[in-house]
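request received
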Amino acid sequence: MSATMTNQAGVGLQVRGLRKSFNGQEVLKGLDFEVKPGEIFVIMGPSGSGKSVLLKHLIGLEPPDAGEILINGESIQSPEIATKYRLAMVFQSGALLSSLTVGENVGLYLAEHRLKPPEEIARIVAEMLEDVGLKGVEDKMPNELSGGMKKRAAIARALVIEPQLILYDEPTSELDPLSAVVIGEEILKLQRRTHVTSLVVSHDRELAFGVADRIAVINEGRILTIGTPEEVKRFDDPLVQKFLHADLKHDSQQKSL
Amino acid sequence: MFENIGEIVLLFWRTLLSLPVAWRQRQKVFDQFFEIGNASLLMVCVLSFFIGAVIALQTGPVLVERGLASAVGGIVGISLAKELAPVMMAILIAGRIGSAMAAEIGSMRVYQEIDALRTMNINPVHYLVLPRLIAIAIALPMLVVFAILVGWLGGAVVAATNSHIEIPYQAYWSNLRDVVELKDVANGVFKSFCFALIIGVVSCHQGLATIGGPRGIGRSVTKAVVNSIVMIVIFDYVLTRVLLQ
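response:
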């Protein structure tokens, strides 16, 4: 794959005073944080805490009501961003185009922007799919793949862009523990190989503490804490501790407590 | 429906602006064109044959009674060419193809496929709307020409075989040729071109505006078909007035 990669240096991301409301309800309440180039930054939080909305802002799919998002100091809303930096997102569902084969999905960016001839695209697609452990599935349709395979195919599609910033939306949701570990390994492998800046939104604690350089915990549109995994584990806030240690207790255990 | 007219016009304008990239999307245009033709040809054939047949059946006995039997060919010919073929085929295509467009784009919207396109810097208007609009704008007028011819044939068969009419084929076609001019067929084809743009842009807009899950897709499909038909009927009146001048 390295032969196809060029200028892979990750970009820095700054979020300043980000606010967003939907129908009068404030979902993001002034978020401030920074992601360093080449870092794996995980945003954790319970469902409905504003993680996915934040991610949509970070890739430029939603305009903020207030505040700004900067990539290497340039606003994400600037029209040049898309041509200047390569950003990619791995959606929660994979979001593979159901009318295209897996191979066509993975090569879509190159084909639509006419960046390579068809034979070269086919070679790159095969290479990327092999990289994520999906060798030989080019001609399958997305609905023939399992949930984990879809996510890996979506990672392969993102890899084709040779991203400088890659966003993962709940990459391990709906996956069995083994597939979740494989996805976590893919995130780490990719970061080590290409030094891409990775931002992972997840409520999977094992994934977060397994891959993160730094973690932000978000709740009800506010960041509760930011730090290394060890710092977050030690952070003395009841909401953070509750989220980090929430566990199912069997009746008999509860009674004995 | 009317609150969305601004958005629909804007989408149409953005699609027109993207025409320079149409050649790059030619494979998708061809795929959509094939889909529309393949899905609709048999239905168009059956529908138009029986429309022609029923006009002949309704008008034939009345005209025969008044000694105007020879006028059946002209009436079937002109009503199909100028009005019934373009409008009925547009309604058929709105139901068959407009609904499919809204459902496909709507499900892409709901399942974040359109967001995925945007993150790859692929314009959904170029990728999804433009090929569909070009394909339907070519396919519907062609289907209408086909429908006019098959409808005339349906009228001829009924006029010749129904015991209450019994007009020879030759007399039917002769009267049709006398009454129907090329510009009448051209009027119908032009109308169908306008209807095709309406169906395409309304259905794609509904698809792109889909929110919610499967229920949202269902709502979009219904709205795409209903809004297309309402706009077809309104524009039919406007275009007829303009073309009569």
